[in-house]
Amino acid sequence: MELDLLLLGAGIAAAGYFIGDGLKNFKNPHAKSLIDSLNEEDEHELIRENDVHHFMGISKEDAKSLIQEHSDIPHVIINHKVYYPKAKLRKWLLNLGE
């Protein structure tokens, strides 16, 4: 019985949050939601050269050969270290097969 009341209270609180968030942007339908603002943080995130294979989902050797084959891959060099902008790399990978 206590668990039921706890779940009911959590459900009411969640519903209140989502209704309040919707009403906050009622007159501004183009406002960014919470999920959009979280995705926006990825746009400026940089991936180190050693970790780019994790983002691509391939092995280190495959990532190195892909980078060597495609010199047009979006990257930034800072203090002689190579970084890849996450959003641009994602877009480049999606357009790679076309």
Which SSEs are present, and which pair or pack?
Layout: H1 2-24, H2 34-40, E1 46-48, H3 52-56, H4 60-69, E2 76-78, E3 81-85, H5 86-96
Antiparallel strand pairs: 1-3, 2-3
Structure description:
With 98 residues, this protein is mainly α. It folds into two domains: 1-31; 39-98, Arc Repressor Mutant, subunit A, CATH 1.10.10. Helix content is 57%, strand content 11%. The protein contains five helices and three strands; from the N terminus they run ααβααββα. Strands 1-3-2 form a three-stranded antiparallel beta sheet. The mean pLDDT is 83.
Defining traits:
single chain, 98 residues, mainly alpha, Arc Repressor Mutant, subunit A, 2 domains, three-stranded antiparallel beta sheet, 5 helices, 3 strands, elongated
